[in-house]
Amino acid sequence: MHKYSKGWFVKQLRDHGILVHPQFKSHLGNYKESELRNLYYRYVEKETETETLDSEQK
Q1: Does any domain span residue 31?
Q2: Does residue 20 sit within a domain?
Q3: pTM (2 decimals)?
Q4: What is the pLDDT of residue 10?
């Protein structure tokens, strides 16, 4: 699977506990790569940044 492909985004979102679209509550496979990319950066990358900031403050 290529990094940043539709399947990669679905896998990353599922690995972080997002199994359905947060707003529409439907299967992630129904969405285009661009929508999945937006969800990834909104939820997964934001989590990673928060964890990094927390560890730097300690």
Answers
A1: yes
A2: yes
A3: 0.81
A4: 97
